[in-house]
């Protein structure tokens, strides 16, 4: 049963790139004009430094699980 579940959630052709913050997973797509590109989605951005966040050390607001 575990192997079947793993096969259902595994995509072939995934791309992984290593950044200074850790690995990021992407996938290959085609543009409207038919050109291939690698898309990286789910990358979190920093919160704007307003209110209580002003002059504070930045932190993550949400945790994104890129690999499971």
Automatic annotation (TrEMBL):
InterPro entries: AB_hydrolase_fold, CarbesteraseB. Coiled coil: none annotated. Residues 16-56 form the Carboxylesterase type B domain. Keywords: Glycoprotein. The keyword Coiled coil does not apply. Pfam families: COesterase. It comes from the Eukaryota. The keyword Glycoprotein applies. This is Carboxylesterase type B domain-containing protein. It comes from Rhynocoris fuscipes.
């Amino acid at each position: 049963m575990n192997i079947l579940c793993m096969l259902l959630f595994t995509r072939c052709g995934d791309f992984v790139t290593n950044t200074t913050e850790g690995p990021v997973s992407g996938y290959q797509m085609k543009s409207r004009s038919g050109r291939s590109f690698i898309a990286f989605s789910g990358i979190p951005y920093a919160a704007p430094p307003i209110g209580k966040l002003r002059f504070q050390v930045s932190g993550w607001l949400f945790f994104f699980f890129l690999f499971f």
